[in-house]
Amino acid sequence: MSLSLQILGASCAVPNPGAATSCYLLRTATTTVLLECGHGAIGKLAGQADPGDLDAVVITHMHPDHCMDLVALRNYWFVHRSDRLPLHLPSNGPSVLRGIAVALELPADYFDRVFDIRSYGPEQPLTIGQLRFESLRTRHNTVANAVRVSDPDGRNLVFSSDTGWFAEFEDFARGTDLLLLELTDARTPDGPDRWHLCPRDGARIINAAQPSEVLLTHYFAASAAQILQDVSEACPGVGVELAVEGESHHVGH
Ligand SMILES: [Zn+2]
After folding, report:
1. How many A from CA of 93 to the centre of ligand 1?
2. Which residues share a beta bridge with 21?
3. How far apart are CA 12 and CA 20, in angstroms?
4. pLDDT tens digits, residue range 163-200?
């Protein structure tokens, strides 16, 4: 058995040229889960796999660069499938999604007709086929869940979602096989309320958590080389790479 991660979208809220915002495909031999569904995600997914083969979708938070292509997936599923696709959202997600439908002057049950909408969070771990998801509320300006995804053999990855630095995340990510870490801020911003990671804070997490492998994601293309250099120099002995659209990674060994 193996667990793989395919990068479908690694842009932050400003899409990089020709690229999609947050979207990742998780696969085992019998389970396929879409993690995040930002702008442009479903076109990227359709280029790699049949969206109709998904077992479920998991969204970490309801910012558009993490969920807005649920509209496209809803339409794909409506055309190609007659059952409903399980959609796991953070605690505020069901009401936000219904609000989007109303704001677009669509029926309030526009999404419910196609998605089996459920919420999850730190108190509600979820299991989808062979994959178990545990979560931790991050430091972001909306409800957001970092997730730790494990297969039955113990292989696991941690996705930070969007967050500022906080100590509990270092414990949550400790020893993971693959840390998928958002790194949007090329420099450390002023002020105490930080909702994204910068190289200094990302390196602090990596050095504390000691993952086997790190992929930096959710970045501006223009600053990607610099953030990779800054984080790599601050984390000797840890393999750090950029998440690149289309690439697949085996999780663990
Ligand atoms: Zn966000």
Report:
1. 13
2. 11
3. 9
4. 999 999 999 999 999 999 999 999 988 877 789 999 99
Q: List, in sequence order, every residue forming a beta bridge with 57; answer none if it has no partner.
A: 34, 87
Kindly list the distances between the CA atom of residue 227 and the CA atoms of 49, 113, 117, 181, in Å, as whole numbers in the listed order.
31, 42, 37, 12
**Residues contacting residue 154 through CB under 8 Å, at least 6 positions apart:** 252
pTM tops 0.85 = yes
Q: How far is the CA of 181 from the centre of ligand 1 (A)?
A: 13
Distance CA 65, CA 52 (A): 22
Distance 250 CA to ligand 1 centre (A): 26
3-class secondary structure, 121: strand
- Tell how far the Cα of 162 is from the centroid of ligand 1, in angstroms: 5
Query: Which residues, listed in sequence order, are joined to residue 88 by a DSSP beta bridge?
Result: 58, 118
Domain segments of the chain as ranges: 3-251
Instruction: Determine the distance separating the centroid of ligand 1 and the alpha carbon of 196, expressed in angstroms.
Output: 8
Neighbours of ion ligand 1 (CB under 5 A): 63, 162
pLDDT digits (tens, 9 = 90+) for 107-156: 988 999 999 999 999 998 999 999 999 999 999 999 999 999 999 999 99
CA of 218 to the centre of ligand 1 (A): 10
Superfamily of domain 3-251: Ribonuclease Z/Hydroxyacylglutathione hydrolase-like (3.60.15.10)
pLDDT at 28 over 90: yes
